[in-house]
Fold:
Amino acid sequence: MAASKGALGIIELGASPAVVGELRSWRQPMEVTEIDTTVMGSDLSRFIPGKRRDSVTCDLFFDHDDAGQALVLSTMGDDTATTAVAIYPNGKGTGLPVWNANCYIMGGEVGSDADGAVEFTGVTFSSDENGGAWTTQV
Structure:
Protein backbone atom coordinates (compact mmCIF):
# COMPACT_ATOMS: atom_id res chain seq x y z
CA MET A 1 0.00 0.00 0.00
CA ALA A 2 1.29 3.44 -0.86
CA ALA A 3 1.53 6.06 1.85
CA SER A 4 -0.21 9.40 1.42
CA LYS A 5 0.95 12.84 2.48
CA GLY A 6 -1.58 14.36 4.82
CA ALA A 7 -0.35 17.85 3.97
CA LEU A 8 -2.08 17.61 0.57
CA GLY A 9 -5.62 17.32 2.01
CA ILE A 10 -8.33 19.73 0.85
CA ILE A 11 -11.91 20.28 2.05
CA GLU A 12 -14.45 22.06 -0.18
CA LEU A 13 -17.96 23.21 0.73
CA GLY A 14 -21.03 24.22 -1.21
CA ALA A 15 -22.45 23.86 -4.71
CA SER A 16 -19.92 26.38 -6.08
CA PRO A 17 -17.13 24.88 -4.03
CA ALA A 18 -15.28 27.12 -1.63
CA VAL A 19 -12.04 25.67 -0.28
CA VAL A 20 -11.87 25.72 3.50
CA GLY A 21 -8.63 27.62 4.01
CA GLU A 22 -6.00 27.33 6.71
CA LEU A 23 -6.66 23.58 7.14
CA ARG A 24 -4.41 22.10 9.84
CA SER A 25 -5.86 18.61 10.25
CA TRP A 26 -8.93 16.48 9.58
CA ARG A 27 -10.30 13.19 10.88
CA GLN A 28 -13.08 10.84 9.83
CA PRO A 29 -13.99 8.65 12.81
CA MET A 30 -15.06 5.14 11.83
CA GLU A 31 -17.65 4.21 14.45
CA VAL A 32 -21.14 2.94 15.13
CA THR A 33 -23.50 3.59 18.00
CA GLU A 34 -23.91 0.93 20.68
CA ILE A 35 -27.25 -0.70 21.48
CA ASP A 36 -27.47 -2.00 25.03
CA THR A 37 -28.94 -5.54 25.00
CA THR A 38 -28.23 -6.35 28.65
CA VAL A 39 -30.97 -8.44 30.23
CA MET A 40 -32.29 -8.07 33.75
CA GLY A 41 -30.38 -10.13 36.30
CA SER A 42 -27.22 -10.35 34.19
CA ASP A 43 -23.85 -9.53 35.76
CA LEU A 44 -22.41 -8.48 32.38
CA SER A 45 -23.42 -5.70 30.02
CA ARG A 46 -24.01 -6.70 26.40
CA PHE A 47 -23.91 -4.42 23.41
CA ILE A 48 -24.48 -4.88 19.70
CA PRO A 49 -23.53 -2.51 16.88
CA GLY A 50 -26.15 0.08 15.98
CA LYS A 51 -26.18 2.69 13.26
CA ARG A 52 -23.03 4.00 11.65
CA ARG A 53 -22.01 7.58 12.42
CA ASP A 54 -20.69 9.46 9.42
CA SER A 55 -18.86 12.65 10.22
CA VAL A 56 -15.64 14.51 9.56
CA THR A 57 -13.95 16.87 11.98
CA CYS A 58 -11.26 19.38 11.07
CA ASP A 59 -9.04 21.96 12.75
CA LEU A 60 -8.14 25.26 11.09
CA PHE A 61 -6.24 28.44 11.74
CA PHE A 62 -9.05 31.00 12.04
CA ASP A 63 -9.31 33.38 9.06
CA HIS A 64 -12.34 35.69 9.01
CA ASP A 65 -11.63 36.55 5.34
CA ASP A 66 -11.69 32.92 4.14
CA ALA A 67 -14.76 32.08 2.00
CA GLY A 68 -14.86 28.45 3.14
CA GLN A 69 -14.71 29.37 6.82
CA ALA A 70 -17.38 32.04 6.27
CA LEU A 71 -19.65 29.33 4.78
CA VAL A 72 -19.00 27.13 7.83
CA LEU A 73 -19.97 29.97 10.19
CA SER A 74 -23.07 31.01 8.21
CA THR A 75 -24.53 27.48 7.93
CA MET A 76 -23.49 26.04 11.31
CA GLY A 77 -26.49 24.66 13.16
CA ASP A 78 -28.89 25.20 10.24
CA ASP A 79 -31.19 22.18 10.37
CA THR A 80 -33.16 23.22 7.28
CA ALA A 81 -30.45 22.67 4.69
CA THR A 82 -27.36 20.58 4.17
CA THR A 83 -24.10 21.65 2.61
CA ALA A 84 -22.22 19.64 -0.01
CA VAL A 85 -18.82 18.62 1.40
CA ALA A 86 -15.95 17.14 -0.62
CA ILE A 87 -12.75 15.89 0.98
CA TYR A 88 -9.68 15.29 -1.13
CA PRO A 89 -7.35 13.35 1.20
CA ASN A 90 -4.42 13.40 -1.26
CA GLY A 91 -5.13 16.73 -3.00
CA LYS A 92 -7.07 17.22 -6.23
CA GLY A 93 -6.13 15.55 -9.47
CA THR A 94 -6.94 12.80 -11.94
CA GLY A 95 -7.06 9.39 -10.29
CA LEU A 96 -7.05 10.77 -6.74
CA PRO A 97 -9.91 9.89 -4.35
CA VAL A 98 -12.59 12.32 -3.23
CA TRP A 99 -15.15 11.68 -0.47
CA ASN A 100 -18.54 13.40 -0.90
CA ALA A 101 -21.57 13.84 1.33
CA ASN A 102 -24.36 16.30 2.04
CA CYS A 103 -23.77 17.44 5.60
CA TYR A 104 -25.05 19.47 8.48
CA ILE A 105 -22.37 21.63 10.05
CA MET A 106 -22.63 20.74 13.70
CA GLY A 107 -20.19 23.03 15.48
CA GLY A 108 -16.70 24.17 16.19
CA GLU A 109 -14.73 26.27 18.63
CA VAL A 110 -12.67 29.41 18.13
CA GLY A 111 -9.91 30.04 20.64
CA SER A 112 -6.22 30.56 21.29
CA ASP A 113 -3.49 30.07 23.81
CA ALA A 114 -1.57 33.14 25.01
CA ASP A 115 1.37 32.26 22.79
CA GLY A 116 -0.48 30.81 19.78
CA ALA A 117 -2.49 31.64 16.70
CA VAL A 118 -6.28 31.87 16.82
CA GLU A 119 -7.68 28.47 15.86
CA PHE A 120 -11.06 27.15 14.71
CA THR A 121 -11.10 23.60 16.08
CA GLY A 122 -13.50 20.70 16.12
CA VAL A 123 -15.43 21.88 13.06
CA THR A 124 -17.76 18.92 12.48
CA PHE A 125 -19.58 17.94 9.27
CA SER A 126 -22.20 15.24 9.91
CA SER A 127 -23.71 13.51 6.89
CA ASP A 128 -27.45 13.84 6.41
CA GLU A 129 -29.42 10.60 6.69
CA ASN A 130 -31.22 11.42 3.43
CA GLY A 131 -28.03 12.51 1.69
CA GLY A 132 -26.46 9.16 2.36
CA ALA A 133 -23.13 8.18 3.76
CA TRP A 134 -19.81 9.43 2.47
CA THR A 135 -19.18 8.15 -1.04
CA THR A 136 -15.75 7.66 -2.54
CA GLN A 137 -14.88 8.48 -6.13
CA VAL A 138 -11.59 8.18 -7.99
Remarks:
- The mean pLDDT is 88.
